[in-house]
Specification:
Arc Repressor Mutant, subunit A, 6 helices, mainly alpha, 3 strands
């Protein structure tokens, strides 16, 4: 089965780790390409390529400020990613609660109930 184009949707676009890095970097404020290149230690052509994909999928917005192009994360376009991953967040919260309950139950039993402690 052929792989979907990276520009087909947000999920395909963020499948590439460097694009996720760029989105994280742009999350708090808009930045020019040069800042992205310098801060993430990536080559300028590579950053431009990734920004083009992120723009085409709507994950980043761009505005011109004189000669500079400033990029920022489009939070609304990221919403489907957030909603999908929040399903798994609930799963992990549930799993962590179960682990915590088990650990607390072992603490209540004391070390004497642990087979390793008894030498078994």
């Amino acid at each position: 089965m052929p792989r979907a184009a990276t520009t087909s949707d947000a999920f395909n676009a963020v499948a590439e780790p460097r694009r996720r890095e760029i989105l994280n970097f742009l999350a708090l404020q808009e930045r020019p390409v040069g800042d992205i290149v310098d801060s993430l230690n990536l080559e300028q052509p590579s950053v431009s390529k990734h920004l083009r994909v992120l723009r085409q999928t709507g994950l980043v917005n761009v505005r011109r400020d004189g000669r500079r192009m400033l990029y920022r994360t489009n939070a609304e376009a990221i919403r489907p990613l957030y909603e999908w991953t929040s399903t798994f967040e609930r799963f992990w919260r549930h799993q962590l609660s179960r682990i915590k309950k088990r650990a607390e139950a072992k603490e209540d039993d004391g070390p004497e109930s642990d087979p390793i402690y008894k030498g078994e």
